[in-house]
Amino acid sequence: MTGDQNVLRVRDLRVHYGTGRGDIIAVNGVSFDVRAGETLGLVGESGSGKSTTAMALLRLVSPPGRIVGGTVMLHGEDLLAADERTLRRRRWSEVSLIPQGSMNSLNPVLRVGDQIVDVIRTHEGRARGAALTERVTGLLETVGLPPRVMRLYPHELSGGMKQRACIAMAIALSPSLIIADEPTSALDVVVQRVVARTLMEVKDRLNSSMILIGHDMALQAHLVDRIAVMYAGNIVEIGPVAEIFRDPRHPYTRHLIASVPSIHRRKPIVPSELRFPDHGRGTLLSRGRQMSSRRRPVDLYEVSPGHFAARADDETWAVTEEDPTHA
Amino acid sequence: MRGLTWGYVARRLGMYVFTLWLSATIMFFIPRLSGDPVEGMVARITMQSGHVAGGEELIAAWRERFGLDDPLFVQYLTYLRNMLTFDFGYSLANFPTEVNSLIGRAVPWTLGLLTVATVLSFVLGTVIGALLAWRRTPRLLRVLMPLSLTFTAIPFYILGILLIYLFVFTLRLFPVSGGYRSGLTPDAFDPAFVNSVIQHGTLPALSIVVASMGVWALGMRGMMITVEGEDYLTLANAKGLRPGRILFQYQIRNAMLPQVTALVLGLGGLVGGTVLVEYLFGYPGTGALLYQAITNADFTLIQGIVFILILTTVTAVLIIDLVYPLLDPRITYERR
Amino acid sequence: MPEPLLAVRGATKVYGKRQNAVTALRDVDLTIADGAASITTIAGESGSGKTTLADAILGFTGLTSGSITYRGRDLAGLSRRGRLEYRREVQAIFQDPFGVYNPFYRMRHIFDVAVRRFDLAPDKRAAQRLVDEALAVVGLRADEVLDKHPHQLSGGQRQRMMMARAYLLKPRLIVADEPVSMVDASVRAMILDIMLRLRDEHGISFLYITHDLSTAYQIGDDICILYRGEIVERGETRAVIDAPQHEYSKLLIGSIPVPDPEVVWDLDAPVSLTGESARTP
Amino acid sequence: MDPTLTRIAEAEIEAEEAGARPASPWRNRKLVAGAVIVGVILVSTFIGGLVWDTTLARAATSPLNLPPFWVDGGSMDHPLGTENSGRDMLALIVVGSPTTLRVGLIVALISMLVGVVLGFLAGYLGGAVDAVIRILSDTAMTIPTLAIMIVIAAYIPEMNATTMALIIAVFAWAGPTRMIRAQVLSMREQGYVRMARLSAVSDTEIMFREMLPNLLPYLAASFIGGMSGGILAAVGLEALGLGPQRVPTLGMIVSQAIEGSAILRGMWWWWGFPAIILMVIFIGLFLIAIGLDEIANPRLRGART
Hints:
The complex is a heterotetramer. Chain A is of the alpha/beta class. Chain A has 9 helices and 15 strands. Helices cover about 30% and strands about 25% of the residues of chain A. In chain A, a hairpin with a 2-residue loop joins strand 1 and strand 2 (about 20-35). Chain C is of the alpha/beta class. A 6-stranded mixed beta sheet of chain C has the order 6-7-8-3-9-10, with helices on both faces. Chain C has a 4-stranded antiparallel beta sheet with strand order 2-1-4-5, covered by helices on one side. Classes of the chains: A alpha/beta, B mainly alpha, C alpha/beta, D mainly alpha. At the B-D interface, helix 1, helix 2, helix 6, helix 7 and helix 8 of B face helix 4, helix 5, helix 9, helix 11 and helix 12 of D.
C-alpha cells in the first residue's frame, strides 16, 4: 500500500469501555487505511466494535468509552493528538458523518436548512443570505429533496427524507472522507435502495472517500470497494470486495457471507456461532491493570496482494453451536 | 401553518375557560357544603378570638347581601355573572369599600413581586442547572452550586423568617415590613420611592428566588444530561460546531422544553408561596390582604382575592402554553 | 372439505375517524390450512398493515369489518373457555427480544405465568420438566438462563427463550412478527432453523411476518405481499419471488441487494410506487 | 456508540454498584442520608413523648417567655424555653413534630393511592375516561391550590390535623395521577404486556403484577413528594392561621410565634426550634426524593456533580 494515496491511516487504534470492574475492550488495536476515492466497508455484528471504531476516528467516543491509544492520521495529521481547536476545524470540513439512525440525529428544534447552514457558517465564516440559501437548496437538490425541505423541521420529514437531509449536510463542505454509520439500516428496502443510490452519487461527485459501516453483507457487496471484517474489536480480514466474497479466508468472514439469505438460491440454514474466547465480547480487563494487560492485536497475513486475513488455524476459531454469552 | 395552529389555540382557550369555571364553581359550593356558609365562618372566628362584635347582625347582613335565601341555582348564576364581570361587591370588614378597590391596590404589588421573583429564579436556576451539567464548567462552581440547592428543600415561608431574623433583626440591613417607607407617596418617577420599593422588595423576592431556584436547577441539570446522550448532540460535535453554539442551540434549547412545562406546573405553587411571603413581610400585596380578610371573616374579600389569584396563574399558564409551540415545533403535532 | 386452521375473511381496519381516517387493512383474505404444518409469509414494508394483521389475529386489536375464524369458530364469538384455548393454540414471537421481558422479574417469570394461566402442570416438578424440554428444543439449558434477568442474556438467547415459551404451550400456530429483524446474522440463522424444526418435527405452523423477502425465500411455503393494507400478490413463495407479477412485488424484489459483488444491483430502477412526500398537515 | 457494548458496560456498572438486580436502593447515599434524617426525627419525637411531660404543651402550664436553659434566665425545667402563653417549647415540639409528619403521611398515602387508581384507569383504559382524568388533573395542576384550600379551610369551624390533611389531599392527587398515567401509557406499549396477554393474563393482573412492580421507584418518589408537598401546604395554611386549633403542629407553633412578634422581641427559640425541625424534615425528604430520582434515571447517577 503506498502511503501517498491514503486519505486516512489508522494505526493500533484502541478503545476501552470503562466499568466498575475493569475495562471492556471495544476496539483492540485496529489498523487500516482508506485510499483516495474509495469506499471501505466496515462490517461486523453488534458488539464487534465497528461503530465505536468509526466514532473514535472523529474522537467522538462518549463515556463510559474512551480512546486509550493509537493514531488516526488524516492527510498526515494525527487527529487523536490534535488540540481541540484543530480537531474542531477538521471535523466536517475534512471528515463528515452520516449517523446511524438519522431519526434522532437532527436537532428537533432547528429547521433542516439551519442545521446545514450551521456547518457552513462555522467552517467558512459568514456567508451572504441569498448565496447561502442557494447553496443549501443546491445541496438538497443533490440528494433529491425539494427546496422547501430547508424550511421544514425534522419531524415533518419521513425516514428516507431525514436520511437524505443528513447526506446533504455531510457533503456540504466537500469533505475528503465521509463516515456513514449504517446509513440505511432503519429504512425499508425500497427506500434503502434510493438512499444507497444517492449516497454513491454524491460520493462520486465529490470524489471523496467513504467508510461505510454496516452488518448487511449483501448491501456491502454492491456499495464498497474494499471490506474490513470486524470481530470482537479486531479486524480479522480486509481486502477488495470481490476477493473477499470469492475467497473468504477467515472463518468469521465465511460465516458472515454464508449467513446472508439470498432470494436467488435456497440454501440450507446452518445455525452456527463462532467462539473466540480470547477476544470474546465483553472481555474484562481487571481494574488497575488495563494498560499492562492490553491484548496484542490480531496478526494479519497477506493472502494475495491487498487481501489480508487473521490466522485462523487457531483452535479457538472453531465453529460451535453455542451462543456467546458474556461473562 | 407551523407552530401555532388554530386547533391548538382553541384547545388551550377551552382549557382556560374550563379551569376558571371549575375553580369558580368549587369556590361557590365549598362554603355551602357544610350547611350555612355564614354561620360556619362566624363560628370559626368565634373559636379563634372568642367573640365577634354584633355577630347576629353580621349574619343577617351577609344573608341579605348574598341572597342566601334564594334558590341555589339562582345564587349560582348570580355568582357566575359577578365573577365574569369582576363584581365582587363590598368588603364586609371595610364597608363601604369595594373589594375591587382593595384588590386593585394590592394586585400590582403581587404581580410585580411575583414576576420579578419568578423570572429571576427561573433564569438563575436554569443557568445554574445548565452549568452543573456542562462539561466545561469550572470545578469550583460545580462544587459550590449544589450547596445552594439545599435551600430548595426549605419552604419560602420558613426561609423568609430566617432572612428577617438575619437581615432585619440581627444585621438591620433592610426595613422590617411594608412595600415602601411610610411617609412616601407612591410615585413611580420619584427616585426615593423607587429606591424604597427596591429595599422593601429585596428580602421577599430573595426568599422566593432562593427557595425555588433549585427546583429549576435540578430539572435543568437532569434534562441537560438526558440531551447529552441524544444522537443530535453527537452529530453537533461531529460537525465541529463551536462549544457555545452546541451548548445553546443544541443542548440548552432542547433541555429547556421540559423546563417550560415545569414552569407551567410550578406557577400555582409559586403564587401560593408568594402570598405567604407577602403576609410574612407585611408586603402590601394580596397576601397580607388575604390574611386580613381571613382574620376579619371578610367573605367577599377572600372570594375576590382567591379568584384573582387563580385568574392570574391560569392566564400566565395560558400565555406560556401559547408561546410554547414557538419553542418546540413538534408540539402541535402531538395529538395526531 | 376440512375446516382451515385459521381463516381471515374481508379483514378491514380503519384507524381514526372521518377525514383523519387511515385504512391499515383493506379486505384482506388469508387462509392457513389445517393439514401439514406450513410457514406462511406476510411480506410488506412499514405501513403496509402487516403488524395490524398480526395484532388482529392475536386479538390485540379488533377489526373494523371482516372476520377471523379459528378452526371454524369466529374469534369474536368465543366463550371465555374458547378464548383461553385459542390463546394456547395460537401463540406469538415478536421482534424486540428485550422489551418482551419484564425487567422486574427473572427470565423464569414468562414460563411461570404461562404454566399457571394455562394450567400446564400439576406440580412444580412437572412444570420444570416441561420448561426443560422447551428450552432443549431451542438449544438452551435451564440453569444457564432461567434465574437471570433479561439484560444478562444475549439477544439470541432472549429470542430463543421467547420461542421456547411459545413451544411450551404446544400451539398449532405461531405468529412470528419480524422475529429476526433486530438480531445479528448468526442469531438469525439460528432462529430460522428453530422455526423450520418446529414446523417439521413438531407440526407447528407459522405466520411469518417480515419485511425481509430473502429469509422468507429460505423458509417460507406460501407468501402474501401486502402493500398499503391490501394483498397485491400471493402464491407459493419461490414462484412469487422468482417471477413476481404485480408491479409492487417487482419493485420490492428488485430492491433487495444480492450478497454477490458480481451481480449488478440496479440502483437506477424506477421507484414510482413509493412516492415519498413530506408529512405536512 | 455501539449499543451492545454500552449495554454491557452499563450492566457491569450496575452489577458493580448494586451486586444484583433489582438494584438495591440503599446503595444510594442521598437516599440513605435522607431516610436517616427523617427516621431520627421520628424516633426522637417518639422517645421525647415517653420522657417528657406532654401536658406542658397546654397553655398556662409554665412560666411565660422563658429562654432556653443555656441563656441567662433559662432553666432546666424548660430546657428549650417557653412561649408567651405559658407553653413549654420542648413539649410543643414533641407533640407537634409527629402531628406534622402525620399530616404529611396522610396526604402522601391518599394522593398516591388516588394517583395509582386514576393513573391506571386513564392510562390503561384510555378513551373518554382518560380524557376526563387528564383534563381534571391538568386543571388541578395549574391552579394555585393553596388559594382554594384557604377558601375551604376558612369555612371549617373546627380544624384538626386530620381534617387539614384531608383537605390538602383533595388537591394533591393530580401530580401522582399525571405521572403514573404517563408511565402506564408507555408501559402499555411494552412487549412484556403483550406477552402477558398472550399468556391469557387478566387486565388486573397485568396492572398489578406486570406493571406496578416497575412503578415502585416512581411510587416511592411520589409518596415522598406527597409528604413534603403535604407538609408544605400545611405550613402555608397554618401560617395564615388556618391550621388546627387544639393540637400543635410545627407550622402552627411558627405561625403563632410570628403572630406574637417573636422575631422582633428576640425570642428566637420560639420560632427557631420548630423552624429548624421543619427544615430538617424537608431536607431529609428532599434527599430521599433526589436519591429516588437517581435510582429511576440511572443517567443522572453517572454524571455526579
